[in-house]
Amino acid sequence: MSDQTNNRINFNENWNGKLLCNCFTTIRLFDVKYELGGIYDIALKDKVSGPAEIVFLKEITLNQITVAMAYTDIGYSPTQAREMIKQFYPSVPDIENAKFIYIVLKRTTQDVNLSNQIDKIGTIQAADIPIQR
């Protein structure tokens, strides 16, 4: 999927256009560096779009990904999301039993100009749009 270094959560794709929202989710391999209340710079393809706070964490395994988690996070069914996540982490042994973490983030500076974002989605593939501030 992506990685986090130096208080940064990096995304390789803007699945479901989620990075255009003030609140969004991510499913990652479990790591203690993800902390409730922690502030992280959010980056799409290494372009930082601003900070966000982790407001919810839940440890899960792949088979615990719900319909709501899958569609909100990746925009696909739970079955499709599980298969995609397996491809994101090809070197993880026994991935079916690996611990993941479902994270909900809230931007610390919210964008009130949502119509501007909608205009951009209509003309540019959402996965390629860095958030402008």
Q: What's the story with the biggest beta sheet? A: 5 strands, mixed
> Which residue ranges are poorly predicted, with pLDDT under 50 across at least 5 consecutive positions?
1-5, 114-133
State the separation between the terminal residues, measured CA to CA.
Answer: 24 Å
Overall mean confidence score, pLDDT: 83
Which structural category fits the helices and strands? alpha+beta
Helix content: 10-25%
Strand order of the largest sheet: 1-3-4-5-2
Range of strand content: 25-35%
SSE run: EEEEHHEH
Kindly state the number of beta strands.
Answer: 5
Which of globular, elongated, flat, extended, rod-shaped describes the shape? globular
Q: Output the radius of gyration.
A: 14 Å
Q: Count up the helices.
A: 3
